[in-house]
Amino acid sequence: MARLEFEKIQPTVGNSFRLYHATDEESCRVYWHHHPEYEIVYIPAGKGRRQIGRHLSRYEDGELVFIGPNIPHLNFAYGQSSDFEEFVIQLREDFLGKEFLKNVEMESIQLLFEKSKRGLAFGMDTKRKVGEKIQQMPTQTGFERMMTLLWVLQEMALAVDVELLHSEANSPDVPPKETERLRRIYSFVETHFQTDINPNEVAETVNLSLPAFCRYFKKMTHQTFTEFVNDYRINHARVMLLQNINVAEVAYECGFNNLSHFNRTFRKLTHQSPGEYRRQFSTALYPLS
Asked: Signal sequence span per UniProt (predicted)?
């Protein structure tokens, strides 16, 4: 088995969770990885390899699984025998607030989250009903997408055609120290991204020298720390650009002291200017009649 890797996840622009739709297996690099988020994977058709924690099997006629946090798993593009298509939803347990799942109306969904720590695979009936809804999500507005996600979670919670992939909660074979160290790094960036971040200060928070920190971060995330910070800032800028805020103010609020630098970085990461991005996204949400 390849080395276990940590995957960093940021919510989709305008959402409290991440949703992506892939139609090219090369866009989902095959690797053995884990992350602290819960994950729903829906594959409309085809067959392939399912490797989740210690569970190894094959799926037929598509796939629908719900994977709990930090369970190592192999990307589902591996072993696909037909045209590839995949929908993935990644979310934290507190994506709607720390107390949300404690509401009595959420009791069945709270139990679903707990069961997912053992890995869940669903049968054809649930796969069909839930899959139809998930396929609508990429074109929905943020509010519609949230309502659909809650419907999906409730359907999965009530499903009877579900298989537990492990007899007990799967214990991830990644040292908790490494997950906690990355959490501390991400938390530092989240708190300080609007300022000039000194990598030495970040290294000190995880008790590493600067050279050791740079090597560690690149090994764990496949990015340099500077690339990660720029990604984080630009993702934040994407959200702000959908509001009535001028580009210069967005740049400043996202930690760029130079507008030209912001424009260059934005274009490098999105292949669009900030203005082009704003116009395209606005047109997608509110098409011209």
From this structure: none
